[in-house]
Amino acid sequence: MPSSPNPAVRTIKTYAVTPRPNPEAPRKLDMSSWDVPMLCFHYIQKGLLFKYPPDLSMEQIIQRLRNSLEEVLFHFYPLSGRLRVVACEGGGVTCHVEVGIDGEGPEFVHAVADGIGIADVVAADGQDLPEFLKEFFPLDLGINFDGCTNPLLAIQLTELIGGIFIGCVFNHAIGDGNSYWHFFNAWAEISRGKAVGKEVMLSRLPEHDKWFIGGYGEPPIKLPYSSPAEFVVRFCPPLLRERMFHFSSESLAKLKARANHEYGKGTISTFQALSALMWRCIMRARGFPPEQKTSCRLAIQNRTRLYPPLSPNYFGNSVCGVATSTTVGELLNSNLGWAAWLAHEAVFNHTDSAIRDMVHTYMKNPIVYYLNIFDVHSIMMGSSPRFDMYGCDFGWGKPLAVRSGSANKFDGKISSYPGWEGGGSIDLEVCLLPEYMSALERDEEFLAVVSPPIKLDVLLGISDK
Asked: Which domains are present in the chain?
């Protein structure tokens, strides 16, 4: 990660993590048709903010985290591997993960954020997310294949005034958000057991057998390139404003009821209604002409939609983007329920046969996807409020907040998280060009739904209101 001229974060020490050997782990792991396209996406960068454990020293915290990380990687062994690109006879390249290369494992970085406290990370209502968050995550955002040295996972623990932040960097070609939070929760589960002196048998073991569609021979998937230089592209986003917006369960219940009442079907979900709200309000903020085509894209899981379904513990990528489109004029001249129904139909039609058709189409011409596929006339709803982010208790209590780095962000990217208080509440991390964010902050339809954020003293347990 490039350092700023006056970095807020200082690295104290970098540790090498040596995973406990797993004799059953294969040395080579092929990549599926959902993994290979993600080779040029940024690493997933998410992290958790905690109040400083009063009964532990920093040395004890680091030791426990490192020990539990070594144990959890016994089960999540792909994360201790390296990506390798191999040229094929007759042209093309294949990619796979090599496990157990010279006993290498991920890095664990101990850092200190000078003068930064919990309140600075949370950011008060009306404030943009702070720039220094990007320094809470190790590793470069992109991928390289030079000598097969680029790690697939790295961890950074950053000391704050009164708190700690655990940032996890996870290569997107290895897994999606479901796999990412599965790993994070498993790591926390082992650490929590160590806090009370127990050896932990994980409640959810990852399943590493990759899903491949029949009819195209055996893996590996062959890409039509001669070297990584032909497909590795670095994405540099424009200057963005980033904000967290909170939606209480009560506000979302009213929004869902409104959408279903306006369209009269009764089957529109809360998230579909919220996606439609963001689509309408952001396109209004952008001020595009009525004839401009626009789309709303949603990241959607394939695991439960295949027949037979994949295990929820399937480790890897199993996610697609579905989209619905219209014109700006039709979107804004129709009601919320109409837009929400478009989102509902896109999700409803993502069936087993639709997924298989998408995979068959991809296998006819395997390529690598790039972040610039998301055009300026669309929005993209990523992550999920269903991921168990606040269940990641390492033995010192519930996280205070979830925050991300600078990865995979562009104008119109929206990441959804569960609200801290639970109960169906949702937090949205919204990335927009500055002029569009300013317009969104004045949008009456948006302001009628967004809720006040949870107060800091409630997060810290000082107040219950």
From this structure: 9-230 (3.30.559.10), 241-459 (3.30.559.10)
Q: Is the pLDDT of residue 232 over 70?
A: yes
Q: Rounded to the nearest 5°, which phi and psi values hold at 441?
A: -65, -15
For strands 93-98 and 82-87, give the pairing: antiparallel
Q: Copy the structure tokens of residue 382.
A: 């990523």
Query: Annotated catalytic, 172?
Result: yes
pLDDT of residue 142 exceeding 70, the answer is: no
User: 139, 135, 137: which is closest to 113 by C-alpha?
Assistant: 135
pTM over 0.85: yes
CA–CA distance, 333 with 291 (Å, rounded to integer): 12
Give the separation between CA 181 and CA 161, rounded to whole angstroms. Answer: 26
Is 75 catalytic? The answer is no
**Rg, the chain, Cα only:** 22
Residue 274's alpha-carbon distances to 38, 242, 404, 425, in angstroms, are: 27, 18, 21, 11
Question: Which is catalytic among the residues 30, 261, 360, 393?
Answer: 393
Q: What SS3 class is residue 70?
A: helix
Give me the catalytic one of 75, 96, 110, 172.
172
pLDDT in tens, 321-374: 999 999 999 999 999 999 999 999 999 999 999 999 999 999 999 999 887 777
Amino acid present at 57: S
